[in-house]
Design a protein that fits this description.
The complex is a heterodimer of chains A (151) and B (161).
Chain A (H helix, E strand, L loop, with lengths): L5 E2 L14 E6 L4 E3 L11 H4 L5 E7 L5 E5 L4 E4 L7 E2 L5 E15 L5 E15 L5 E8 L5 E4 L1
Antiparallel strand pairs in A: 2-3, 2-4, 4-5, 5-6, 6-7, 8-9, 9-10, 10-11
Chain B lengths: L2 E9 L4 E4 L4 E2 L24 E9 L3 E11 L7 E8 L12 E2 L8 E3 L8 E2 L10 E7 L13 E8 L1
Antiparallel strand pairs in B: 1-2, 1-4, 4-10, 5-8, 5-9, 5-11, 6-7, 6-10
Classes of the chains: A mainly beta (151), B mainly beta (161).
Chain lengths: 151, 161
C-alpha cells in the first residue's frame, strides 16, 4: 500500500510577499530613518529601537498614499495625514511606547507553493494613564490599508 | 525585503542538515525530499520522524511568536500526524513517537522557540537564524485504508520587526 503524504514546503523558501507598507521614523532632532532609504538600502527596525527615547513620529505608508502615524509625544494615532488626531485615546498619557510588528501567516500546501501569505501590520502605542495603569491601543492593518482597532 | 525563511530538515545519525528542502513527504526512509512513490509507508508502520526547522535570513531585527499548526486536510481512518516543538534532534526512526496530535487551530498551535532556546530570534552575531526543531510523524494502524491520504496544509506564523 502506498500511504504517505506529500507536503511540500514551498521549495524551501517563502516568497516574502512584498511589503505593502513601509515605515519611517522621525526623531526629536529632525532626523529620519526610512525603512528603505534613497539608495534602496533596507534599514533594520533595531535602528529605531536604539533611539526610542528620541522618537517623535513613527509612520507607515503605502504607495497609494495611505499613511498611519503614531505621535509618541502626545500619544496620538493619525490616519492619512489628517491634521487632527484621527484616533484619540486618553487625555493624560505617560511613558508612551511604540508598538509595531508585522505578523506573517503562511499556509503551505502540497504543491510547492504557499496557499496564502498574509501580512498584518500591527501599529499602536501603550502608555500609563493618570492612575498609572498600562493601556494600549493597536491598529491591525491589512495589505489594503483596512484596519481594526484593538485595545 | 525584510525576513525570508526556508525550511531545513535534519537527517541521519550524524545530523545531515539540508536547507531549502522542496517538500516534506512522510516516507519510509530517513532522507529529505524523498519520493513517496519510491518510499511508501506500509501500514501499520509509521513514517520516519521528520525534524524540521525554519531558517530566517534577510533584513530583520527580531522574530517572535512563532507558531505551527495543521490548518486543513482531513484524516482517513486511523491516520494521524503527531508533532512536537522545541525537541532535541535524535536520529530519525519509524518508531512511533509519543507526541501529541498536531494542533489544528492557531489558539492551540505549537509554540516554536529559536534554535538557541529563547522564544525570540534576535538578529546578531552568534544567532543561527534557525528555529528550534519541529518533530513530525505520520502514524497509522492496520485499519488505515490503502491508497493516498488526503492533502494537508500547515500554517507557520511569526511576528517580525
Amino acid at each position: 500500500m502506498s500511504n504517505s503524504i506529500d507536503i511540500d514546503l514551498n521549495s524551501g523558501n517563502n516568497s516574502m510577499n512584498s511589503l505593502v507598507f513601509h515605515w519611517n521614523a522621525i526623531f526629536k532632532d529632525g532626523t529620519h530613518i526610512f525603512q528603505f532609504d534613497k539608495d534602496g538600502i533596507e534599514h533594520k527596525f533595531k535602528e529605531v529601537q536604539e533611539k526610542f527615547n528620541e522618537l517623535v513620529y513613527f509612520n507607515l505608508t503605502n504607495n497609494r498614499g495611505k499613511m498611519f502615524s503614531v505621535n509618541l509625544i502626545n500619544g496620538l494615532i493619525g490616519y492619512n495625514r489628517l491634521e487632527f488626531p484621527y484616533i484619540e485615546t486618553e487625555k493624560k498619557k505617560e511613558n508612551i511606547r511604540l508598538i509595531f510588528f508585522r505578523r506573517h501567516q503562511i499556509e503551505l500546501n502540497e504543491s510547492l507553493n504557499e496557499k496564502n501569505h498574509n501580512i498584518a501590520y500591527h501599529l499602536g502605542l501603550q502608555y500609563n494613564d493618570e492612575n498609572n495603569i498600562n493601556r494600549k491601543i493597536i491598529l491591525q492593518i491589512n495589505s489594503l490599508g483596512h484596519f481594526v482597532i484593538g485595545v | 525585503m525584510a525576513a525570508t525563511f526556508q525550511w531545513s530538515e535534519s537527517n541521519t545519525v550524524s545530523e545531515t542538515v539540508t536547507d531549502g528542502i522542496s517538500n516534506l513527504n512522510f516516507v519510509s526512509t530517513d532522507a529529505p525530499n524523498a519520493s513517496q512513490t519510491i518510499y511508501p509507508i506500509t501500514r501499520p508502520n509509521s513514517s520516519f520522524t521528520k525534524y524540521l526547522r525554519a531558517k530566517f535570513s534577510g533584513v530583520w531585527s527580531e522574530i517572535s511568536n512563532m507558531k505551527f499548526w495543521k490548518s486543513s486536510g482531513t484524516y482517513v481512518t486511523d491516520e494521524v500526524i503527531k508533532a512536537a516543538a522545541n525537541v532535541a534532534f535524535v536520529t530519525p526512526t519509524q518508531t512511533s513517537t509519543g507526541d501529541s496530535e498536531i494542533p489544528i487551530t492557531e489558539g492551540t498551535a505549537l509554540s516554536v522557540n529559536s534554535y538557541e532556546g529563547p522564544s525570540t530570534i534576535t538578529y546578531g552575531s552568534g544567532v543561527s537564524g534557525y528555529t528550534a526543531y519541529l518533530r513530525l510523524q505520520l502514524q497509522m494502524s492496520a485499519s488505515t485504508p490503502a491508497g493516498a491520504v488526503n492533502q494537508k496544509a500547515f500554517t507557520f506564523q511569526y511576528d517580525e520587526v
